[in-house]
């Protein structure tokens, strides 16, 4: 049996999804796409219960080099199907990307090495992107005379602004980790050997939050930039009513009244992590 190209591991409420095709810089082969879909079925079923946060990364010093150009070339050489066939494959990818973008747990993306083409787009589906100091991002579609796919045309301008998104798409140039942080593409930059540790610590801290509050907040935030203010306020009212009825909220309020330590204290969790790192 061939080794899997997607590894999914769950430990203490944090799932880690690793693109594991390092010999091809984790380019998105048909097998990898299928296994990604299978993993998403599992993640959706466990979200908010066994899985409270997700880390996405790549094996072998790269995140993802994008589409498998060699496989695409081989398919074209043997006929390759029609334009409608290509459209159908991309529409299938759209379902995958929407499932991932709307997964109702925090998604931390850890980018080491290349995040190119569809790999760049895949990184954008996360909630918080961390990068190594040797990471780079490139909207490489233009180098092949293509338009961005895998949802970059929607997500990129919302993250870095319309003018910057146009420049990155039109030039198809590499963006290093430091520039990526400066323009708001990534949250923080870490030495490559510390990247996964930072991503896992962030995910573990986020896993302490109320699953209902995270799910409801993420759902509305993902829609907020294309809805009118009144609609967002209506969604807010419904979400708050649901959150107020959660066991987490009731417990948190009781702890506040009793002057007990809070269920979710970000600064305390950070201090705990720092103490663990400092311990011999």
Describe this structure in words.
This protein is α/β, with parallel strands linked by helices and 280 residues long. 51% of the residues lie in helices and 14% in strands. It has helices spanning 30-46, 69-77, 83-101, 118-124, 152-160, 162-171, 177-182, 195-206, 211-224, 229-244, 247-257, 266-278, and strands at 6-11, 14-19, 53-58, 107-111, 114-116, 128-132, 136-138, 174-176, 188-190. The strands form 2 sheets. The chain has a 6-stranded mixed β-sheet, sandwiched between helices. Strand 1 (6-11) and strand 2 (14-19) form a beta hairpin. Helix 5 (152-160) crosses helix 6 and helix 9 (211-224) packs antiparallel against helix 10. It starts with 5 loop residues before the first strand and ends with a helix.
Task: Sketch the topology as an H/E string, one letter per element.
Answer: EEHEHHEEHEEHHEHEHHHHH
The portion of residues assigned to helices is 40-55%
User: What is the terminal-to-terminal distance?
Assistant: 42 Å
Mean pLDDT: 94
Radius of gyration: 20 Å
CATH C-level label of the largest domain: Alpha Beta
Overall SS class: alpha/beta
The number of helical segments is 12
Produce the secondary structure layout:
Elements: E1 6-11, E2 14-19, H1 30-46, E3 53-58, H2 69-77, H3 83-101, E4 107-111, E5 114-116, H4 118-124, E6 128-132, E7 136-138, H5 152-160, H6 162-171, E8 174-176, H7 177-182, E9 188-190, H8 195-206, H9 211-224, H10 229-244, H11 247-257, H12 266-278
Parallel strand pairs: 2-3, 3-4, 4-6, 5-7, 6-9
Antiparallel strand pairs: 1-2, 7-8
Helix pairs in contact: 1-3, 5-6, 9-10
